[in-house]
Structure formats: structure tokens, C-alpha cells
Amino acid sequence: MIYINQVLQSVKDSTRIRIIEIEESYVYVVNIDANTSMPKKELYSSLLTDIEQKEWLLVTDPFARVVKEEELTEIQIYKRDTDWEIIQTNCAQHMEKLLQKSGRETKIKEIATTLDVTPTKVKKLLSRYWQRGMNKNAMLPDYANSGGRGKTKNLSEDKVGRPRRVTVNGEYRSGINITDEIKTQFEHAINKYYRKTNNYSLKDVYHFILRDFYSDRYKENGELQYRIWEANRIPSYQQFYYWFKKFEDPKKDIEFRKSAKEYELKHRPLISNSKAETNGPGTRFQIDATAADIYLVSSFDVNKVISRPVVYAVVDVYSRIITGVYVGLEGPSWVGAMMALDNMVADKVEFCKQYDIEITEEQWPTNHLPEIIIADRGEFEGYSVAGLINNLNVKIENTTAYRGDLKGIVERKFRAFNGKVKQKAPGAIQKEYRERGDMDYRLNATLNLKEFTSLIITMVLQHNHKIIDKYPMEKEMITDGIVPTPINLWNWGIHNRKGRLRTVDRNILRLNVLPREKATISRAGIKFKNLLYGSKRAIEEQWYAKLKNKSIEVVYDPRSLDKIYIPNDNGMDYETCILLEPSQQYKLDFLEDVVFQHQLRNELEEEERSKQVQLTINADAMMEQIIKGAEQKKKKALHQPTSKKEKLEAIRENKTNEKQANREEEKFDLSPTSSIAEQPTEVIDFVSRTKLEQTVEKKSSSRLMDKLKRKRDEQFGKDE
């Protein structure tokens, strides 16, 4: 329900309004915080809906005070009574007109004329009357100074609850009764201010409540200011804190103040464990990577420090045994994950022997594929995992972003490894940030990659034989006298539980985890990454002639492009392709090097193309200039009219004369005494294209002579 004189506050912008009249399906409201405010007409049902949806909150009337007559000055009483008389005598009888927007200005002017005042004066009186409660004390000239500011007031109702023992100026600060309206205000403030990423404290939220609901608003130097009410008109902080604990929702508070991921990662109830989702070894493996907290040195020069290594680990959820490990400089990336998966199915005895560690198969008996691999969204969301899923029937479960707790087992192993490394190894990162004057721990780096890998293997072997604290033991395990170490749990699970362990040929696994892309068959060979490959099968089946420009899928190792592989349809066999002679120069390069070389070539060509455009334009201009000069020369010679027949009938003779002239110019003279000055002077007339000499000999026009010359030229090919 909506009642006259109720005060509502907007949740959106804290605007406060008062209900001044209700008639049929409409209500009239005024803004109580504006300097002057005329009534606005609103739909009753619409405003009621907004109140029910908590878009408007019921708040305490800021002008509802107990004012004692004896505490008012004579001037205040006189002004109040005078203004009240004006409202009652001149305005009350016209209230229906004054509520309506249409005709209001005219009626205000009529009232102003009757009172012999300005319309603005009438507007201010009406605004004060409507804004401050429509009673006689609403007409007091300055509410901020009335009522004995700073003095304790007697409330109409006594506060319930235990009296406060804290006093201010010798008097008790007791707070107010907490009504449903005030609880709604508390809940609104908690949602608006506390459950935000600003991370406001409860004290800050309490101050916002006082500012929004328990203060007078005024402007000073054009800026909005707030004056908090007296202590006995506002709820105390203890009251707010009490009701905050009533409203408290830890899950919602953390999700809104931090994030839902933060709650799930650090604050959610732990009512289950990872083992509950497994029924034996191999059901689920967890894989993850981390950068080790140590700097290494180069294996070529111990005085050169390299970056931190990346450690990949694969852990069986049921037994907690580490089934695969990779230590290197790849990653976190698919290449690093690929190496960890490769080690997962490798013979661990041979693997340890590479690092001068002698073990038996019983000490590390894992070389199997699991049913499910739980991984991050990064490396295991790409196309590269398709081979694992489709050909090897391994399911991939990707955790949500920033949810390391969903791979808690492998994450815990990383913390243990890094903690041990910090205790033992030189060059380890001792703290995240170095302070001024601290020694640079990178200078202490001593281990190379192979030596650090030996350390990790040693810690893995120790872990596989170490008792697991708080492992959820089964009754059968206790009956069989099993000590909860990873090795014991692995062996017991294989014999007593179903499990999902499978073996696979290592090369087949590699074929299915290596990245795949498209290559093109052309006449020059199988083209991949701008490199050319060939294979025995391609030659025998004449691919280069029959399958031109056809795309095929190839498998490759980005660390070595010496060979690529064409997998067969069954995913269990492949055709090897080797680099052809034109691409042999890239035999020892990584994929990144090859891509860089081609990008560099394209950039150089692109840079040169701008120069080529300018060169083409200049060449075209020069050609046009030469042609234009020849055309002008021909136009000048048109004063000697010649018929078409005369131009064409002596082509062969004209060619012979031109050839003779060119021979005189082009001939070689190797005599050291020869010079241009000693040679006879020649004058060539380009109009008639005949050769003129100082001593002109008349050429024989005999047809017999012409035939002999043509026969000579044909014999020696000189007429070409």
C-alpha cells in the first residue's frame, strides 16, 4: 500500500520523494531534495510495482521531528505562522488546481497578485509545504537550525533491546528501533556497497547508510553536502553489524566481492575427494605444468644463466603415483605436454638410465594409458588432442579457468617439489620480490637442465614410496595390511580393483600426439610450410603427376622438420617423408626458424615492391619519351611524299644497307694504334636510311649481284 506523506528513496540515484496526494489511479509526488519542487503525476500501480521490486525504498521522513515551542525563537514562530496562514487562506482552496501541471502557473500568478508578492515567492512556500510534511512546522524558515541542534531529544517511543553502556558527552547513545523498513535499507546497502569489487569495509557501508538515509542534504558553494542526524535518530553501527550477520551469505559475499572462482578455489566446502571418482589405477590421470622456482645454467657454459625450467607431471588419481614427468624449456605448451605424455608410456628403467640413475621396474612400474586425462583448458583444448581421443580412446576433461583445485593432487606435488628445491638447490627463488640490497639469487645458479632433471627424478622416486597423509583408505586395504604409499596403492589397485590401464606402442602414441596440419601435393613435391618433401610411396603411386594441388594431412615435430609423416586412416601406421634437395638447407632448423625466414623474405620483398613501382613508372615514362621523339622525327620527314608501294617494295635492300651501316659501327678493332680520329668519317642519313661516304661509290643494281648476295647470306645465316 501507498500512503500520503510517505517518503521513498530511489535505489538508482538516491532521489527522495514524498507522496502528497492520492486520487483514484494516480499519485502526486514531489522531490524533497530540490530547492523548489512542483508535484508530478505518477500511476499508482506503476509506483506500487517499483516499491515491491525494491526500486523505491521506504525511508524515514527526514523532516519528522519533535519541535518544542519553547525552543523556537520569536522570529521563527512569526515566520512560520505567517507562511502557514498564507497556505491555509490562499492556497488550500485551490489545491486541486495546484496539483495539476496544466493551469498551475496561471493559478500561482493569481495568488501572487492577491498577496502582492512574486510568483517565485508563492512557489517557494508551496514547495516547503509539500516537501517538509504538509504541517505547520513544515513552514519553519530554517529546519537545520531549529529543534535545538546538539541536544538530546525525547522520542515518542522507547527503544527496545539492551541499553547501551557507551555514552557520548555523558549521555547514552541508544540507537533506534529497527523496523522492517530499516532492515530493507540495510539489505539494500549491503547489496549496493558491500557486495562489490570495491571491497568496502562494513564501517564504510555503515557510513553510506547514514549518508543515503539518515542525513539532511544541502548545497554549499554549489556542491551537495550531507549533515548526519542526531545520534538518537540513526541506527548504531552495532545494530547494523547485528543485522548484517543475520543477512550474511558467505558464498554470495565472496562471489560478489572477489569472484565465483575465488570462492570455488579457496572457500567452498570440501565434502568429497578426488578418489571418489575413480575405481582403480588408470581411471583418471591429472596432468599439469609449472615453472620451477630455480634458475639453471647452460649445459655448454656454466657461467651463462638460462631461464627457469618447466616441469610437467602426470599423476594417477587413485594411487597418487607419478606416471610421467618432463623437465625442459618447452612450454607450458602442447610440445611440453606431448613430452610428458610420451614419458607416461615410456619404460622408466631406460628413462632413468639416461640420467645415470639405476632403478628396477618395481620401483617405477608405470608405462600405461589411462581412461581419462584431467588437464588445463590451454594445451588440451586444441586440435592436437584429437588423435588421443579418436584413435587411442582417451577422454580429455578440461577444468574451468583458474580452478587449480580441480587438479589438487598434481598441484600439491608441484608445491612439494618447489619447496624441496628451495631448501636444497643453489639459484632457487627464495622470495617473490627482492628488496634493495638483497643478493640476486640468479647469480647462484649452478645446475644445468640434465642435473636438475636428475633432481626431479630423485624426488619422484621418493614420492612414489612415501606414505600419503590423510589418504581415504578402504577397509580391504587395511585388512590386507597395505601401507598407503603410491607404489603399494598402485599394485594393490591393479590386483583388487578394475582399473583402466592400457599399453600402447610409444611410436603410435607419438604419431597421435604430434601436431597435425595440411600439406599440398604439387609437381615439385609435397609442400609443407614452404618446404618440399618426398616419399617412396609418392613416387611409386605417381602422386606428383596425378594428385596435383591436393591437400593431405601430415604429422610433424616442430622441433625438427627433417621429416614429416603421413598417417594412415587407421591411425596406427604412417608414411615417412624426407626433405628434398631444394629444402635441405632447413634440415636442422626448428619450425620457428623456418617461419621466421619466410616472413623475413616476404617483408623484404614487400619493402622492395614500393621501389619496384617507382622503377616501373620511370621506365614507362622513358619509353614514352623515346617513342614520342621518334614520332616527331617521322612527322618532320613527311615533306618528302612517298607512296605505300615505295615504302614497302625495297624492304630487303633497306635491311641490307642498314646491316652494312651497323657493321661499320659495331666492328671490333684490336689494333693498339687505332683511334676514332683515324677512321673514315661517315654520315648516315636516317631519312633515306642509306649510307653516305666521303667517296660515294655507286652500287651495282645488277639482279645477278643481288642473287649472289642473297645466296651468300642464306648460306651463312646473315640475313636473320
Features of this protein?
16% strand; five-stranded antiparallel beta sheet; flat; alpha+beta; 24 helices; 720 residues
Written account of the structure:
By secondary structure, the protein is α+β, with helices and mostly antiparallel strands. 39% of the residues lie in helices and 16% in strands. The strands form six sheets. A six-stranded antiparallel barrel has the order 15-16-17-20-19-18. It has a five-stranded antiparallel β-sheet with strand order 4-3-2-1-5. A five-stranded mixed β-sheet has the order 12-11-10-13-14, sandwiched between helices. Helix 4 packs across helix 5 and helix 6 crosses helix 7. The longest helix has 46 residues. The radius of gyration is 49 Å and the shape is flat.
Quick rundown:
The protein is α+β, with helices and mostly antiparallel strands. Helix content is 39%, strand content 16%. It has 24 helices and 22 strands.
Q: Could you list the spans in which at least 5 consecutive residues all have pLDDT below 50?
A: 143-157, 165-173, 270-274, 402-407, 686-701
Largest sheet: 6 strands, antiparallel, barrel
Taking all residues together, what is the mean pLDDT? 78
Radius of gyration: 49 Å
In the sheet with the most strands, the strands line up as 15-16-17-20-19-18
Alpha plus pi helix count = 24
Tell me the strand percentage band.
Answer: 15-25%
* Helical proportion, percent range: 25-40%
Which oligomerization state do the chains in this entry correspond to? single chain
Structural class: alpha+beta
Topology, number of strands: 22
Assign an overall shape: flat
Query: First CA to last CA: what distance?
Result: 114 Å
